[in-house]
Specification:
The chain is built from ten helices and two strands, in the order ααααββαααααα. By secondary structure, the chain is mainly α. The protein has one domain (2-20, 40-114, 130-275).
């Protein structure tokens, strides 16, 4: 029961990252760029390592246990769920991108946020809410629900696994939430409403955690499915969504810094896996 309580607390902590916009809005664009520069590189390393060294091995371990208990499950079963997670995350990402999602094209360069400070000295005027902002909220709600499921299942399989998954999710969510805040403001929301609705979208993760808790008590195969599914989703996030952002960097010095931060993210996750005993 303690694992479940900690799981819900960590999900709520992840939801609070949606309020990051309140701290970022006063920063200069160059400062924000440097913060995102570090976070995205580190998030890529942590998410990739979490998928390959934690989520997928844990799913395979569950599969082996189920087979040893007499369940007639093919060994390729887990890999089907991994590729399913990869494909579903691809579809969700395409859905968000098609409707003006997380990344925006600005001056022929992909960036993670819009200049929400544009026109800050002009009188405030009522704006019509653009459809892409509402669709972005819907897409984020789906994504956050899945985050809640992943974190809860991880904690129900042991606190060490939960800590590692929460860390990986946090470093991915922070730059994403900054981008989401910019999207809502750009789409017609006031800054206060953007913070509120971004938080409401993020809090959906708690319902994901509750769903995982209820379903896992009914079907133990659900844990295997979510671990493998999340492993595939994390592989997609790292390889197809985050890594291309790093490859856009042409400056040699910054590329070296990114590589070091990327490797540091991998090393930290592997170190946590070795230090924290898994149940």
């Amino acid at each position: 029961m303690m694992e479940v309580i900690i799981g819900f607390l960590m999900i709520f902590f992840i939801s609070l990252l949606s309020l990051a916009g309140i701290f970022m809005i006063s920063l200069k664009e160059q400062t924000l760029d440097r913060i995102l520069f570090i976070l995205i590189a580190f998030a890529t390393g942590t998410i990739l390592a979490t998928a390959l060294f934690d989520l997928i091995p844990e799913a395979i371990h569950h599969l082996e246990e189920l087979i040893s208990e007499g369940f007639a499950i093919n060994e390729n079963f887990v890999f089907f769920y991994i590729i399913l997670g990869f494909v579903i995350f691809f579809i969700i990402n395409r859905f968000i991108y098609w409707f003006h999602g997380h990344a925006h094209e600005h001056d022929n360069k992909m960036v993670c946020y819009e200049n929400v400070m544009e026109g800050k000295n002009k009188p405030v005027q009522e704006k019509q809410i653009k459809s892409f902002a509402l669709l972005n909220l819907f897409g984020d709600g789906m994504h956050n629900f899945l985050d809640g499921v992943v974190i809860m299942v991880a904690f129900m399989n042991g606190i060490p696994l939960g800590i590692i998954i929460t860390l990986a999710v946090a470093f991915h969510e922070l730059p994403q939430e900054i981008g989401d805040f910019g999207i809502l403001v750009y789409g017609g929301f006031t800054k206060k409403r953007a913070l509120l609705f971004n938080f409401l979208s993020a809090i959906i993760a708690i319902f994901g955690g509750l769903f995982a808790f209820l379903v896992s008590n009914v079907n133990e195969l659900f844990n295997l499915f979510i671990l493998a599914f999340s492993g595939g989703g994390f592989l997609y996030l790292a390889s197809a969504e985050l890594l291309p952002e790093l490859l856009e960097q042409k400056n040699l010095k910054k590329s070296i810094i990114q590589a070091i931060i990327f490797i540091a993210g991998i090393v930290i996750i592997i170190s946590l896996i070795l230090i924290l005993p898994h149940e």
